[in-house]
Request: fold
Amino acid sequence: MNVTTISTTPYTDQKPGTSGLRKKVPTFQQPNYLENFVQSIFDSLQGYRGATLVVGGDGRYYNREAIQIILKMAAANGFGRILVGQNGILSTPAVSCIIRKHNAFGGIVLSASHNPGGPTEDFGIKYNIGNGGPAPEKVTSAIFDRTKTLSEYAILAAGDVDLDRLGTTQLGNTTIEIVDAVVDYAELMESLFDFDKIRKLLTSGNFRMCMDSLHAVTGPYATAIFEGKLGAPSGTVQNGTPLEDFGGGHPDPNLVYARDLVELLFGDNAPDFGAASDGDGDRNMILGRQFFVNPSDSLAILAANATLVPGYRNGLAGVARSMPTSAAVDRVAAKLGIDCYETPTGWKFFGNLLDAGKATLCGEESFGTGSDHVREKDGLWAVLFWLNILAATGKSVEEICQEHWAAYGRNYYSRHDYEAVDKQSAAELMERLRGMLCDLPGKEWGPFEVEYADDFSYTDPVDGSVAEKQGIRIGMTDGSRMVFRLSGTGTQGATLRLYLESFEPDSAKHHLDPQTALASLIALADELAKIRKFTGREKPTVTT
Ligand code: G1P
Ligand code: ZN
Reply:
């Protein structure tokens, strides 16, 4: 075997964020940049010699080049077998599914999720552990520590592997298997949901759906599942071919970036159901006819209706949500008499709860929902879950939501993002707020009185690990809340996220636009944090 050891010098900026290492493509193209990070991953792991690694990405620019480098390095470092998605494609939930199904040691996902792709846009790399989920903090910090001292890496001198042809080849002593990207994942979905019922709905002639894959990774999965297995008419999946630059778009399923879908669902003669997913397929947006389902509500509604779905027929062990996600699901958990966990932002914090059987469903306000079927959030899973509920109840998306609010009350919710603002000013805004926290409780402004103000800290109930400074929370005595956080996934400047929530028990007041319902809280947030002053922006870049 022709292993070469290449000497290298550390890069100082390889600290993984909320979800792996994300940088602009030219950063990754610097000499040894990717290689250093990959070697640091391998050096932080133990016992993988001869074991199986799963590799795939969302098809964005630099995906194929990166995979060739990773395969040669994984072979040189002694992995026994590598499963690679055909054409280099694997969605994030599919990687998780394949790691679990094939008892792999771990996996490498190449994606910058919802960030744009292309020669000057974003790329990313993330390591997943043997449970199929994102590496926990102790692993990512070990990787980061290693990047700071690395002096050499190992790579096989070999030709490129043909990523497009299914089958097995050898790279040195390592077996490379190019696997169908969709089959294992589609099988798992079929085992969870009532495909017969959903097929009846989709072929009934009086229900129309539109799935927008935004030219990203879910295209092949959605086409195989909705149009193939479930019989939806061809054309149901739109923008279904993964493109290296996502067609120039921003593959983020929200009201701003999935504009075509939103226009369709809010236009004349709209379909009954619309859904979109992100670059790597772990996020989802759910729309009804002229109706948007807030992701926090979506989690609560899935939890409340879970027993309609065969895979969750026996009920839920518990639920979990990230701290900035609204408390709508807490109300469902209380009614069901199950535990509800509040974790920091990022899917990696759900892993232990899922492994320990403490939570069955998890979700984040950032269009992420999932369950213990894998260890990632899962966009198409959420779409199928909604379809299963619609098929089982015969109700519309809007009816399901209105009835849910009538039963549990409505948690009005909105997130305001100030993207690509000056890093230092954003840090100053947060520091200033931190300095105010002790004095806030008891202060009153109009209808609001501060009940608590803190910087969220989390102790993992399974392994006792502590995560601090996870977002500033200011909670009011009437249940309203504002949360301030800086994004850990942005690649340009800083992104300030402001999360706003209030609770309305009275169903006569459930018809308001969230921006109207939250108007006084929004004004107070700006006054307290001086958002306009620090960001220099009159309004948020994205309002959800
Ligand atoms: C964002 C979301 C977070 C999600 C992450 C990865 O992270 O807010 O919920 O887990 O992307 O998809 P952030 O940029 O806020 O750190
Ligand atoms: Zn994603």
The chain has three domains: 3-181, 185-408, 410-543. The longest strand covers residues 410-421. The pocket of 1-O-phosphono-alpha-D-glucopyranose (ligand 1) is lined by residues 18-19, 113, 322, 345-347, 364, 366, 368, 487-490, 497 (CB under 6 Å).
